[in-house]
Amino acid sequence: MSGRTEAQLRELGLTLPVPAVAVANYVPFVASGSLLFVSGQLPLDQGRLVAAGHLGDTVAVEDGYRAARQCALNLLAQAAAALDGDLDRIRRLVRLSGFVACVPSFVDHPKVINGASDLMVEILGDAGRHSRVAVGVAALPLGAAVEVDATFEIAA
Length: 156
Prior knowledge:
Layout: H1 4-11, E1 29-32, E2 35-41, E3 44-45, E4 48-49, H2 61-82, E5 90-101, H3 109-124, E6 131-137, E7 146-154
Parallel strand pairs: 5-6
Antiparallel strand pairs: 1-2, 2-7, 3-4, 5-7
Helix pairs in contact: 2-3
């Protein structure tokens, strides 16, 4: 990987993790035409969850934010794998879908998923501005507090 996106990652002091392998009957990403769909990523850092549990109970909003940020790094790692390491092929992030494991009374889903949104804008600039959904769910795989998927527009 080289180019402006890699330079931006270095400037932020970030490195992309090794992309996670699929743990069920799906693939980590699918390219179709000019779109790249990246499957939901958990907040895994070196194989360990950054945050497990439920927002509004055992996980603070700040921890959920950090978890969503890790999900965004994992999304970019999958995109790099799909694009042969060339993240500069990303024209724009079209949409993020964020899922927050939370108690029924929790209402700060947007604050949590901002962790992913903010990082995408920090790394991709205006191309990182996107549409988004942030929803609460009863549970996520492995007990994760957050999961995020993405759709990117890519250059050929």
